[in-house]
Specification:
The structure holds two protein chains of two kinds. By secondary structure, chain A is an alpha+beta fold. Helices cover about 40% and strands about 25% of the residues of chain A. Chain A has one domain: Heat Shock Protein 90 (2-Layer Sandwich). In chain A, helix 2 runs antiparallel to helix 3 (about 40-60). The two termini of chain A are about 25 Å apart. By secondary structure, chain B is α/β, with parallel strands linked by helices. Chain B has helices at about 30-40, 60-75, 85-95, 105-120, and strands spanning about 5-10, 15-25, 45-55, 75-80, 100-105. In chain B, helix 1 (about 30-40) packs parallel to helix 2. Classes of the chains: A alpha+beta, B alpha/beta. Chains A and B meet through helix 2, helix 3, helix 4 and helix 5 of A and helix 2 and helix 3 of B.
Chain lengths: ~150, ~120
C-alpha cells in the first residue's frame, strides 16, 4: 500500500465557469499528463475529454453563469489517469442523453450531445455522481498500457 | 488569450476560410461570425483550410453542422481540407467524413467546386 501511495501523484485546479478558462484547464491537464509519461496521443485525448466535460458544465450545469465553481482534481500513476470534475450547478441525468446518430443530428440540425459521445469514446470510464442541490461530479479515467497508449 | 483567428480569401467563386489556433466553446462564435459574414454576402462555395488549426472540440465541430444545411440549400457546400491527423481523427470519430468531403489540399477542394460547376453548366 505504502509503495503505491508514494507513486500516486495528485493535483488540483479550481476555476470559474467561463469558456475563456477552457485554455487554462487544457494547460493544467497537459502539464500534469506530460509528467506522467503518457504518449502525446493519449494526452491529447484526455485533454479533449476534460474540455468536453467542462464545456458541458459551463453550458448546462451553470447555463453560462460566469462565476460558478469548477473543481478539477486529478490523480495518476504509471497506469491510470483519473480526473474528478465537480460543479455546484444544475444536476443532470446522463442516462437521458442518447449516443448521437450523426445523420439524424444533421437532418434535425442538432449540434449538442457530441461532447458526451467523445468523452465516452476517448476515455475508458466516464462516471457521474449527482446530489441534486449539492454538487455534481463526473470522473474520467484512462488506463494506460505498457507502451504509454 | 487570443488563441484563435480566422481569415478569408476569395479564389474565383470559392471562398477559403483559414483557421488558426484553438477552436473550442470560447472561440467557436468567431467562426460562426465568419460563416455568417460569407452567407450574408451570398457566398456559399466555401473551403475550410485546417492547416494551422492546432485543436478542435465538439463546440467547433458544431459550427460546421450549424451552417451546412443553409449553404447546401443555396447550391453551395462546405469542403474541408489540409487537416492534421489529430484533427481528422476527431472528425472521423463523429462520422463527419460521411457528411462532408475532406481533401488533402486546399486546391483539390477548390477544384472539386469548379468540376461540379462545369457539370452543371
Amino acid at each position: 500500500m505504502k509503495a503505491d501511495k508514494s507513486k500516486l501523484k495528485k493535483d488540483k485546479l479550481e476555476i470559474n465557469s467561463r469558456t475563456e478558462n477552457l485554455a487554462e484547464i487544457r494547460a493544467f491537464i497537459n502539464s500534469a499528463a506530460a509528467e506522467s509519461g503518457f504518449s502525446k496521443e493519449v494526452i491529447d485525448n484526455i485533454i479533449l475529454a476534460v474540455d468536453e466535460a467542462c464545456t458541458n458544465i459551463i453550458k448546462h450545469a451553470y447555463k453560462y453563469f460566469p462565476d460558478g465553481k469548477i473543481v478539477l482534481s486529478l490523480k495518476y500513476d504509471k497506469k491510470t489517469f483519473t480526473i474528478d470534475i465537480i460543479d455546484y450547478g444544475n444536476s443532470f441525468e446522463p442516462g437521458l442523453v442518447p449516443n448521437p446518430d450523426l445523420k439524424k443530428y444533421f437532418d434535425e440540425k442538432r449540434v449538442g450531445g457530441l461532447g458526451m459521445y467523445l468523452m465516452k469514446t476517448l476515455m475508458d470510464e466516464v462516471k457521474y455522481v449527482s446530489v441534486p442541490g449539492k454538487f455534481n461530479q463526473v470522473s474520467l479515467t484512462k488506463n494506460i498500457n505498457s507502451n504509454g497508449r | 488569450m487570443a488563441e484563435f483567428s480566422t481569415s478569408v480569401a476569395d479564389k474565383g467563386e470559392v471562398s477559403t476560410i483559414y483557421l488558426k489556433g484553438f477552436l473550442d466553446a470560447h472561440t467557436a462564435p468567431m467562426l460562426e461570425n465568419t460563416f455568417s459574414g460569407l452567407i450574408d454576402n451570398g457566398k456559399y462555395s466555401i473551403v475550410v483550410n485546417f492547416k494551422e488549426l492546432a485543436y478542435i472540440s465538439s463546440a467547433g465541430l458544431g459550427v460546421f453542422m450549424a451552417f451546412i444545411e443553409k449553404i447546401r440549400e443555396n447550391s453551395g457546400d462546405i469542403k474541408l481540407s489540409t487537416m492534421s491527423d489529430k484533427v481528422y481523427n476527431i472528425f472521423d470519430l463523429l462520422g463527419f467524413p460521411l457528411l462532408y468531403e475532406i481533401f488533402k489540399t486546399e486546391d483539390e477542394a477548390i477544384n472539386k467546386f469548379k468540376e461540379t460547376k462545369k457539370l452543371e453548366s
